[in-house]
Amino acid sequence: MIANEHEIDTTEQAFVSALIARSSELAHVITVARAFRAMVRGQRAGELDGWLSTADGTGLAGFAYGLKRDLAAVRAALSLPWSTGPVEGQVSKLKTIKRMMNGRGGFDLLRHRVLAAA
User: Fold this and answer.
1) Which DSSP string corresponds to 67-117?
2) What is the pLDDT along the chain (118 residues), one digit of tens a residue?
3) What are all long-range contacts of 31-39, with beta carbons under 8 Å and residues at least 24 apart?
């Protein structure tokens, strides 16, 4: 669980504590994941390089490698105030409507369904 202790109930806290007690490696991964979560939520792009080097030796190395592949976009996401969330929501809504049509109907029907759903 990467959620902070105060965000989960006591049963989940006990479970996470038991996992951490049994594996120091897992404890380190959870700490690194929580640091990433705090960095993203706080939009602290200055901490990215340090986090990437820390993550390289953990179970999050593959994730860190993926971030390094598009480092400019990750830095922009952490430092700029813009978000593509609303756009992504509209794209998901459109894809859901399109999937419900099961490949039947053309663009005109899709257009009418999207406009009707709005």
Assistant:
1) HHHTHHHHHHHHH-S---HHHHHHHHHHHHHHHHTTT-S-HHHHHHHHHHH
2) 577 777 888 888 888 888 889 988 988 998 999 999 999 999 999 999 999 999 998 999 999 999 999 999 999 999 998 888 889 988 998 888 888 888 787 888 888 888 887 7
3) 32/58, 32/60, 33/2, 33/60, 34/2, 34/4, 36/2, 36/60, 37/2, 39/78
